[in-house]
């Protein structure tokens, strides 16, 4: 397709990741493209709801979209939307509306209003996972099986939400002894026997033989083909908190297993460097924050500060 045809394609819901690969020249990993696609479609849906064009988008349209999403989304999500909208416009040789002063001021305002968004997620720990297995391991309900597999795989793999969402059957490795591992960013992540069993059960009973591993289930029990988005993942982990009966002040999110696993590793004597490696962090800043080494976190964060006002949080 030529540029004009891609403008038409991206002016409505994008359902094929191949389009993203084409316009970006295959510069990004598929997991990143899935995240771009989710964020872009959110923008497209909003534009459709107000009868506005997503391509090229007007500055006022983006302002309205960001203000609308800010009602329910964190600052990090708002930043992602801006990055995605900018990427599509620039890649398709359209004027980037996100570089406008109004958008910069808008993001500065949301940065000031949402400073508390950076509070650390509550950790989902090994003892939480053990209790969830006790409750759901014998369940025959397909949603219970899927959610238990999500909780277990995310915890043992220290997975980010984007990694969990884009995880595919092709990422699963099983050796001759029946041991199951995940292949992620050229790193092999072994899974415990218990987690391997519930993952296999989900794949078998969910008839998931290829493509995305963790998918939506509608109210009738029908399993879709598209991956869970961030909102769905949040609800799955919110459910874990509800099932565990944790305090109303404790809310699990998609980041909780990554936080909890890092803290458990530290409690077991793992060094910051070992935790960083196991969680595939490029910088030790975040794992340092998770395990309470705030001075180390602050030192590392200084290295990555950028000039863009809304990136300095």
From TrEMBL:
The keyword Transcription regulation does not apply. GO terms for molecular function: DNA binding. Residues 1-93 form the Core-binding (CB) domain. Keywords: DNA integration, DNA recombination, DNA-binding. Residues 119-303 form the Tyr recombinase domain. The keyword DNA-binding applies. Residues 295-313 have a biased composition (Basic and acidic residues). GO terms for biological process: DNA integration; DNA recombination. Residues 273-313 are annotated as: Disordered. This is Tyrosine-type recombinase/integrase. It comes from Photobacterium sanguinicancri. The lineage of its organism: Bacteria, Pseudomonadati, Pseudomonadota, Gammaproteobacteria, Vibrionales.
């Amino acid at each position: 397709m030529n540029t004009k045809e891609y403008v038409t394609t991206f002016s409505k819901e994008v359902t094929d990741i191949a389009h993203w690969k084409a316009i970006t020249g295959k510069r990004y990993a598929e997991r990143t493209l899935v995240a771009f696609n989710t964020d872009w479609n959110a923008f497209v849906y909003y534009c459709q709801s107000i009868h506005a064009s997503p391509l090229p988008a007007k500055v006022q349209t983006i302002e309205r979209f960001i203000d609308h999403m800010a009602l329910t989304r964190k600052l990090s999500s708002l930043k992602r939307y801006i990055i995605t909208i900018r990427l599509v416009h620039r890649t398709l040789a359209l004027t980037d509306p996100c570089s406008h002063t109004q958008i910069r001021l808008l993001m500065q305002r949301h940065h000031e209003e949402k400073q508390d968004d950076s509070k650390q997620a509550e950790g989902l720990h090994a003892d939480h996972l053990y209790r969830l297995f006790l409750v759901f391991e014998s369940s025959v309900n397909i949603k219970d099986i899927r959610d238990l597999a999500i909780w277990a795989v995310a915890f043992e793999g220290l997975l980010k939400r984007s990694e969990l969402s884009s995880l595919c059957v092709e990422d699963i490795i099983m050796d001759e002894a029946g041991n199951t591992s995940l292949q992620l960013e050229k790193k092999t992540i072994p899974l415990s026997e218990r987690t391997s069993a519930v993952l296999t059960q989900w794949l078998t009973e969910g008839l998931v033989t290829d493509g995305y591993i963790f998918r939506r289930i509608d109210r009738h029990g029908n399993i879709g083909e598209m991956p869970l988005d961030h909102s769905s993942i949040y609800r799955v982990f919110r459910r874990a908190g509800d099932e565990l009966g944790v305090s109303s002040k404790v809310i699990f999110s998609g980041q909780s297993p990554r936080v909890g696993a890092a803290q458990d590793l530290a409690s077991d004597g793992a060094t910051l460097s070992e935790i960083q490696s196991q969680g595939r962090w490029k910088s030790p800043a975040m794992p340092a924050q998770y395990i309470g080494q705030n001075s180390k976190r602050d030192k590392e964060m200084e290295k990555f500060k950028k000039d863009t006002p809304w990136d300095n949080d």
